[in-house]
Specification:
globular; about 20% strand; alpha+beta; Fe2OG dioxygenase domain-containing protein; single chain; four-stranded antiparallel sheet; nine-stranded mixed sheet; metal-binding; Iron_ascorbate_oxido_reductase; Oxoglu/Fe-dep_dioxygenase_dom; 17 strands; Jelly Rolls
């Protein structure tokens, strides 16, 4: 069933009927997912197939990694180019920008740093973009666990791609045919404590407002909060998308929006200051709480061309986007952040 959440009306969708229900029940889930992506761009999903104990373990490993000495984290350095999105990026290395590609514009945005650090991993068999791990002796079991976690999240991809295809009136395997190589990315994010004054005064950010690049994103977040989604009725207004136990957040990315000729929405979202902890009576001593999140980015195979789908354009509805390969689009967006 579908249920709204707060002022955002982000629905909560139970995926179990899509997996084990009758054809009619599965069709209803597909309709709910389609409407969520069309009118909001976001949904909470439950019974998504990743066991809660595995999610809890993933957050535990993430905390262990980011608690390592800086010298150990630096043993898995993110390459200097943005498109090779693997390994560790320290605080201030990345600056998320929204559709800004000129050098001067990017430099201007980078004057306000993103106060976060990250670790990126993908398919262990990816020859174009091999994973970059810390040595096993630095954090034994880390690599083995996240290879397992990556593969488990792949099951969500398969279910969600089938479901949205049916919701759009396509063959259920349509999007699966574009996603055969597991060119996905799992990202560990840590937002360390930072002075409230810097965030409120615009001298630092967590992640600025942006859309995601690929087909869709599955986000596991902790209870701290901070994720905000642009209001569907008021451009420029952002509302909280709080942690809801037993769910993940899923949103569509730019490529699915391009496929649908803007029928589905790649909604802007950001991470702002979470609830605050009083460090002292002085307002300058107030610090944000540390926050962890784990997004799983689902992307088409790199050489596949993303073009407007039949039925999404016509004489009175021209195509809004030129065809582009998944690799070229995502590389363009990533190169602008590094």
């Amino acid at each position: 069933m579908i249920a709204p959440v707060g002022t955002l009306s982000i629905p909560i969708i139970d995926l179990e009927p899509a997996r084990t229900g009758t054809p009619e029940e599965a069709a209803q889930v597909a309709k709910d997912v389609y409407e969520a992506f069309k009118y909001v761009g976001f949904a909470y999903i439950k019974n998504h197939g990743v066991p809660q104990e595995l999610i809890d373990e993933a957050f535990s490993w993430s905390q262990k990694f980011f608690a390592l000495p800086q010298s150990d984290k630096d043993k898995a350095p993110h390459p200097p180019v943005g498109w090779y999105h693997r390994g560790y990026s320290g605080i201030g290395r990345e600056k998320v920008v929204q559709m800004v590609f000129d050098k001067e514009g990017i430099e201007e945005k980078r004057k306000v740093p993103d106060v976060k650090e990250s670790f990126e991993l993908g398919n262990e068999n990816d020859e174009r973009m091999p994973n970059i791990w810390v040595p096993d002796e630095v954090l034994p079991g880390f690599r083995e666990f996240f290879n397992k976690f990556f593969e488990t999240c792949y099951s969500i991809e398969q279910l969600m791609l089938k479901t949205i295809a049916v919701g759009m009136g396509l063959n259920e395997d349509f999007f699966l045919d574009y996603h055969r190589d597991k060119t996905n990315q799992c990202r560990l994010l840590h937002y360390p404590p930072v002075e409230e004054e810097l965030l409120r005064g615009g001298k630092a950010e967590r992640i600025a407002a942006h859309s995601d690049f690929g087909t869709m994103t599955v986000l596991f977040q902790d209870e701290v909060g901070g994720l905000e989604v642009e209001d569907i009725h008021e451009k420029g207004k952002f509302n909280p998308a709080p942690y809801i136990p037993g769910t993940a957040v899923v949103n569509i990315g730019d490529l699915l929006m391009r496929w649908s000729n803007d029928e589905l929405k790649s909604t802007l979202h950001r991470v702002r200051a979470p609830p605050l902890v009083e460090a002292s009576g002085d307002s300058k001593g107030r610090m944000t709480r540390p926050r962890y999140s784990i997004p799983y980015f689902i992307s088409p195979d790199r050489e596949r061309v993303i073009d407007c789908l039949p039925g999404c354009y016509g004489p009175n509805r021209p195509k809004k986007y030129e065809p582009i390969t998944s690799k070229d689009y995502i590389s363009m967006r990533m190169n602008a952040t590094y």
